[in-house]
Amino acid sequence: MPIIKILPHADYCPQGTEISAPAGTSICEALLENHIAIEHACDMSCACTTCHVIVREGYQSLNAAEEEEEDLLDRAWGLEPQSRLSCQAIVGAQDLTLEIPKYTINHARENH
Description:
The structure is a single chain. By secondary structure, this protein is an alpha+beta fold. It is 12% helix and 19% strand. It has a five-stranded mixed beta sheet with strand order 2-1-5-3-4. The radius of gyration is 13 Å and the shape is globular.
C-alpha cells in the first residue's frame, strides 16, 4: 500500500505525518480517513479548489488531470506545476509527498 507523506501544515498536521492508502483512493479520501480534515467545500465533486494540494514527490504515479480540474486549478491559491485537487487525484502505486497550501480561496472554513 502506498505511503503518503504530508508535510507540516499549521492547521491540518503541525508535525507532518505519514499515512497509507490503497491504490485507487483519492488523496482527499485518504486524508479524511486518516483524520486530516482538509477542506472540501464541494463534497469532492470537482467544483471548488479548497482541497488543493501540491504533490512534491510521486506526481507521475497519479491519474492524469482532466480539463475540468485544470480549469479550476487556475483559481487555486499558490498554484504550482505539481498542483492537484486532492478530490480528483487518485493514488497510484508509488509513495507520495504532499504539501497542503497555507490558504484556500474560502473566506471561512467549512466544518465537514
